[in-house]
Amino acid sequence: MTGITALDELLRSMQPELLNGEMVFCTVAGQMADYVGLEPVAMIREREGLTLLVSKAQAEQQGWPVESCFRQISLSVHSSLEAVGLTAAVASCLAQRGISANIIAAYYHDHIFVPAHQAGQALAALQALSSER
Questions:
Q1: Residue 48 class from Cβ within 10 Å (0-12 exposed, 13-18 middle, 19+ buried)?
Q2: Phi first, then psi: what are they for 132, rounded to 5°?
Q3: Looking at 1-133, which runs of residues are DSSP E strands?
Q4: pLDDT tens digits for 53-98?
Q5: Taking CA atoms, which of 6, 23, 53, 109 is between 20 and 30 Å from 38?
Q6: Phi/psi at 23 (nearest 5 deg)?
């Protein structure tokens, strides 16, 4: 199944959905295999170490420091990984409102992690962006 590449269609069809629960980004030592059992939302290897995106509850259970909490907004539209401009449009929309956007593109959908205390604002902004199209 091929994802959508046309920016206007992506924005019009994105249907942002705010998921339940708070998420945190943690940096940990070791290998990816050491943490697969936690079923992190994302794992990214960087030169400085391994970053995991896990629930706040999981991080606290592991005794990892929690610096900032985020909520996940998933865009329901099946965006192509080759689409141009979706990430920029979403980030710009949120930046205009002073909301940081940590965006992860997966095969089918894009996922935006916003500060937990601004999640409602972020969702409303993305819904407005979509309805403007």
A1: exposed
A2: -70, -15
A3: 16-18, 23-28, 42-46, 49-55, 70-75, 102-105, 110-115
A4: 999 999 999 999 999 999 999 999 999 999 999 999 999 999 999 9
A5: 109
A6: -120, 155
